[in-house]
Write a structure and sequence with these properties.
Layout (H helix, E strand, L loop, with lengths): L22 H25 L7 H4 L1 H37 L14 H6 L7 H4 L1
Helix pairs in contact: 1-3
Bound molecules: zinc ion.
Length: 128
């Protein structure tokens, strides 16, 4: 009764998991980087202090320093957040089997590029 069920290869698109890249190693890299960012976020949260706004005790310059520090901390957090998004997106593509292919032109992203930046989602040409 299963005779009619002989499917031809179900191949939507041409995507397959690339064999020429060490996806496992790249995945470990992504995961450990992810952990580092999470650890960093944790530590900076603990060390972040509210900006002292009392000008008589801290003085104008140091108050500005404090505000600047806070702005920098926020910026760092924003970058970490973006980085996390990139990492998660790359991990998702690994699951999908689309990792290593340019999101824009479907070409394979060179192994060297992935080694430098495992979150790379487009090839060098499309990144320009
Ligand atoms: Zn491309």
């Amino acid at each position: 009764m299963f005779r009619h069920c002989q499917h031809t290869d179900v191949r939507y698109g041409t995507m397959t998991t690339r064999k020429d890249i060490d996806q496992k190693a790249l995945k470990n890299k992504l995961l450990s980087h992810r952990q580092e960012i999470l650890d960093d976020t944790q530590t900076s949260k603990e060390s972040r202090e509210p900006v002292e706004l009392d000008q008589t005790s801290v003085g104008r310059l140091s108050r500005m320093d404090a505000l600047q520090d806070q702005a920098m901390a926020l910026e760092t957090n924003r970058r970490r957040h973006v980085e996390l998004l990139h990492i998660d997106a790359a991990l998702k593509r690994m699951e999908d089997g689309t990792y290593g292919y340019c999101l824009s032109c479907d070409e394979e992203i060179p192994e060297k590029r992935l080694e430098i930046d495992p979150t790379a989602s487009v090839c060098v040409d499309c990144a320009r």
